[in-house]
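Q&A FORM
Asked by: J.P.
Topic: structure of Cadherin 15, type 1, M-cadherin (myotubule)

PROVIDED:
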Amino acid sequence: ICLPYGCNTFHVHSQQIKSDKIFTGEVIYMLEGPGVDQDPKGLFEIDEKTGWIKSKMPLDREKHKSFKLKAFALSPSGERLESPTTIEIYVLDQNDHRPEFTQKEFVGTIPEFSVPGTSVMQVTAIDSDDPMTENAALSYFIVGQESIPPHSINKTMFGINNKTGVIYTRDVGLDRDVVQSFKLTLQVADMSGMGLTSTGRAIIHISDINNHAPKFHPTMYNMNAMENKNIAELGRVNATDKDQKGGDNWKIKYTIVNPSGHFAIRTDPVSNQGIISVAKPLDYESQAEYRLIVKAENEVRLKSPYEQIHSATVTVRVMNENEAPVFYKNPIKVTVAESIVPGTVLVSDIAHDPDNSKFEIIQDPESWLAINHATGQITAKRSFNIRSPHVRNNIYSAIVKITLFSDADGISATATLEVSLWETNDYPPVLIPLSGTVCSDQDRDKLGLLLSAVDEDMSPQADPFTFYIGDQNVAANWTIITLNETHAVLHPLIDIEKGEFSIPVVVSDSGSPSLSSNALVNVTVCPCDSFGDCKSYTAAIFGTKMGISFIALMIIMGCIALLLFLIVLAVAVNGCTRQNIRKGGGLLVGVSDDDIRDNVFHYDEQGGGEEDEDAFNIDFLRNPRDMVPPPASFFPQNCSLPRGKQPLRKDAPHNLPSPTYPRKPPGDPTDIEDFINVGLDAADNDPNVPPYDTALIYDYEGDGSVAGSLSSIASMGSDVDQDYDYLNDWGPRFKKLANMYDPR
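REPLIED BY: S.T.
REPLY: Here is the structure written out as tokens.
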């Protein structure tokens, strides 16, 4: 069912419905849905008897375009006779709305001298009527044109597309120098231009393009400049541009075509003039006049092919003044190697050199420099040292002075000389440490001795360091693994349980040329305790560089062990002699068994060295002559030295096998020196003997001892009857004993 939009007639019959049940009885019609019993309510009704659907009030298509209703056929008792019927009612549109522009005023811009057909902008309008009908079919028109300034252009310059509303240029002649903008009156109409209408307005501005080159007025300029001065504004040159003032096309960029380095030019952003300045002080004696060519051009590229770039000539005259000597540079910078050869020229021609002037260095803390007083040439007096306290950030500073004697006041000038020093490779690296311990009971990947190096040079003449083993034979068992630029690890390639090794190591720096040094690294391989130290002191003694050396220590230990051995030997000989001596025989004659005066007791006393005689003289040697060694025949096969519990040595590993000692005494008493030396050598290398500074401890003999006391040893004859000259043949170790029995 279609009803006209905006229908003003009430109770318009739009549609009639009928049921087939009217032939069998009375039928009552009912209607429900939007517009009946749902919002918007009360728009439609139905005649219960005839089934005519009627509108009760005017309809507005812009609010409700259609309605979907349901019609029912009921018996008088209210029973449905048939299934409900769906009825759709469409509201037909009427042209009751005017089209309206979307903006009150449209604004657009177009460059000057645009060609015809150039799009400027698009205007739009809307119509509330049905867009599917002619009621909303819009057409656009330009009904008026006004130029600004007024009447500058009278011809029609713009057109509009009736369908799309796009405004475009129709003619040539858009010159911004003539006209700046246009005001257009617009009209829009529905029904394809035949219906309702509305009006609007559009403003079109003409934008500037760079079609004018700047021009100088005048083209010749004269300026004066005082020498030896930086002048921020020496003078101005003027060029004008006809493009829009303040715009990008109006801005002028000035350039000095023939720059000498003394002058610069910049643009005043307000006046667009060029400001010439003196960037580098002028020297009247060097050049008294300069002729500059200055050109002016826009920052934006010129679009007019027939316009040319203009230029102007500026003449600058230098004014002379009675000035002090002037250094060309201040500070004067020089870069040299620290190990420069004395006499090398560092710099020359450092200042303007008028007549009657003198150069001198007034500050040179290290006295490294020399200067020619006439020419100002500076040379190195001696090599530099970059580690000097007067060198900061690798720069050594001195002050140079020039004095002009031609002036009555002796005018002078000073400048700073900055000598930048670069490091040279003067010192080889030194390996550290030179000794250390490698724990053999650690994991294989943790074995090694950490090595490093120190270099008096600085980077880049120092680290990174390179470490390597200097002997190929040693390199088969040891290697060096680099950790970083300054450290490496000396690592064994084979399994080593213990031992002392001297590894030749070479370390070199990264200088140019590279320098290196050799060193022997004493490495002790041993099992370690929880603190990482060897379980004995042998490695520490061997590897240390402090105090007494290992060889000297062994000699001292040997001497002390020899002295102890002689004392023990004397005691043992005395005990054995008392059992085997016969009356009238042998070198020494024992005393009666009843003449046992003393027994050896255990005193916690220690002795050592040849000068320490009191310890044993007090307790078990009554007569110094008791130390006379017995002949070899007094050593019975069953004689043994009684020994108590001895202290343990801490300078050697425990539980190591002892070397073989001589078991039989020599048959000839004159060979006792060799016998003692063999025993002494075995004792020196025996890790189980007591420390060299420990006295031997003997067990208490008791009353029933078969051996006599030390005090019982006596000579069977007088000293005069004995010949002790053979003691002089036993060497320097028995010299003191031989002196005691010297018959002289």
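FOLLOW-UP: The longest strand covers residues 197-207.
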